[in-house]
Design a protein that fits this description.
With 478 residues, this protein is α/β, with parallel strands linked by helices. Helices cover 38% and strands 14% of the residues. The protein has 15 helices and 12 strands. Strands 1-2-3-4-5-6-9-10 form an 8-stranded parallel beta barrel, surrounded by 4 helices. Strands 7-8 form a two-stranded antiparallel sheet. A two-stranded antiparallel ribbon has the order 11-12. 51% of the residues are buried.
Length: 478
């Protein structure tokens, strides 16, 4: 059996990490435009003093230029088509459509850009998969309104979402509302526009912000289905398979709690349309008081759940409460202790292909809704050799091992998997570190961490490999 004939092979990117042109054609500033580049990115934006001030004399801002996809999207999409992409996941920059976020009328130049991008995909029979909001909410909404803890953002997002859905509903079938919505539990600056100075360290604000995002997401589902019943709108979560350090019941309970709180909470609300039973414990442990809700919120969530579950998978984690000698994993942005059975990437993310099969079984078993792996990949330092080539066999090995586990989940476990879009199918700026050096793509882009270089696109060894994977519908992984 293997992969279904209509399986959506492709790749994934985000507007703020590759488009550049951060102040072109009426685009406003986003939160990502105010995030410095470098390994200390999260440390800087997580500090008490960070207030979204852009200081080019002190920091570099690689997102401002990205890989200039804004001016090179036709060239880039042609390369995706050469690989045989069936779909391409990208995001619409909120600030290209509503520069400050609270305007009443959209910026036509922004809408025109995405119309051209979508049409370019369709020219090659590439199905657009659009994320409405991907870590780039308007900076104005973060600074003036305080981010998603403010109920007014529901109205602003709804206007943005309605605008793009109305404009593109005849051309785009697959949508997602918020990228990695559960990431706010670890780094709310990216997904909720909140930093320490605006209340990001208070759990009350984060969960209130999540409620507002849940409402906004359901409003998107409602609008999309009114425009076209065939449209599929998904949630998008960051998933990390979670193990207990050992069979100590205390550690087992810790891994259960971790799964519920991080992997399931947002999906439970968006897929099942209601807050799960363990919300009571979560709120009590964090001293979260009952959330402010408007009349009709819970009914809206129940009536308009998502159609499928999109998720990112890069690593697994290990929960340990009792063993003081357990080693913490270096570089693992989600915490946890070291798994002695796994190797790690150059950035300390533990590599776990079997964990992806476990993830697929856990999600499908819990929800019985179609799944879509919309991010997965290996960040690595690629080197151009003396022949001008990039021999990224390590990336091929990483992806092939994960694809093998996907096939097992489909063929043996009965999981309904829609598609697979490896992250950063063309090199782009890393969200976690703001580096170009942390490369994921099948296509090398000649730019350094300061976005200096020719910008030339060079297919890597993995480019030809992935082309053969798609052509064989996952059968040829050699």
């Amino acid at each position: 059996m293997g992969f279904p004939k209509n399986f959506l092979w492709g790749g994934a990117t985000a507007a703020n990490q590759l488009e550049g042109a951060y102040n072109v054609a009426g685009k406003g500033l986003s939160v990502s435009d105010a995030m410095p580049g470098g390994k200390d990115r999260f440390k800087i934006i997580g500090s008490e003093s960070f207030d979204w001030t852009i200081d080019p004399e002190k920091y570099v801002y690689p997102n401002h230029k990205g890989i200039d996809h804004y001016h090179h999207f036709k060239e880039d999409i042609a390369l995706f088509a050469e690989m045989g992409f069936k779909c391409y996941r990208f995001s619409i920059a909120w600030t290209r459509i509503f520069p400050n976020g609270d305007e009443l009328e959209p910026n036509e130049a922004g809408l025109k850009f995405y119309e051209e991008l979508i049409d370019e995909c369709l020219k090659y029979n590439i199905e657009p998969v659009v994320t409405i909001s991907h870590y780039e909410m308007p900076l104005h909404l973060a600074k003036v309104y305080g981010g998603w803890k403010n109920r007014q953002l529901v109205e602003f997002y709804e206007r943005f979402s309605d605008t793009v859905l109305t404009r593109f509903h005849k051309k785009v079938k697959y949508w997602m509302t918020f990228n990695e919505i559960n990431s706010s539990l670890h780094f709310p600056a990216l997904s909720q526009g909140m930093v320490a100075s605006s209340g990001a360290n208070e759990a009350q604000n984060i969960f209130q912000g999540l409620h507002h995002q849940f409402v906004a997401s359901s409003l998107s589902v409602k609008k999309a289905h009114e425009l076209n019943p065939d449209i599929k709108v998904g949630c998008m979560i960051l998933y990390a398979t979670t193990y207990s350090y050992d069979c100590d019941p205390t550690n087992q309970l810790a891994s259960l709690s971790r799964n519920q709180e991080f992997n399931y909470f947002c999906a439970d609300v968006q897929v099942r349309g209601e807050y799960p039973h363990y919300t009571k414990r979560m709120f009590k442990e964090r001293n979260v008081q009952p959330l402010e809700m408007c009349e009709g919120d819970l009914t809206l969530l129940k009536n308009y759940p998502v159609d499928y579950i999109g998720f990112s998978y890069y690593l697994s984690t290990v929960e340990c409460i009792t063993a003081a000698t357990a080693d913490v994993t270096e570089g693992n942005i989600l915490g946890g202790v070291k798994n002695p059975f796994l190797s790690s990437s150059e950035w300390g993310w533990q590599i776990d292909p079997v964990g992806l099969r476990i993830t697929l079984n856990e999600l499908y078993g819990r929800y019985q809704k179609p799944l879509f792996i919309v991010e997965n990949g290996l960040g690595a330092k690629d080197v151009v050799d003396e022949n001008g080539e990039i021999q990224d066999t390590y990336r091929i090995d990483y992806l092939s091992q994960h694809i093998k586990e996907m096939e097992k989940a489909i063929e043996y476990d009965g999981v309904d998997l829609m598609g697979y879009t490896p992250w950063g199918c063309i090199d782009l700026v890393s969200a976690s570190t703001g580096e170009m050096a942390k490369r994921y793509g099948f296509i090398y882009v000649d730019l350094n961490d300061k976005i200096e270089g020719s910008g030339k696109r060079i297919p890597k060894q993995s480019f030809t490999w992935y082309k053969n994977v798609i052509a064989s519908n996952g059968e040829n992984l050699d």
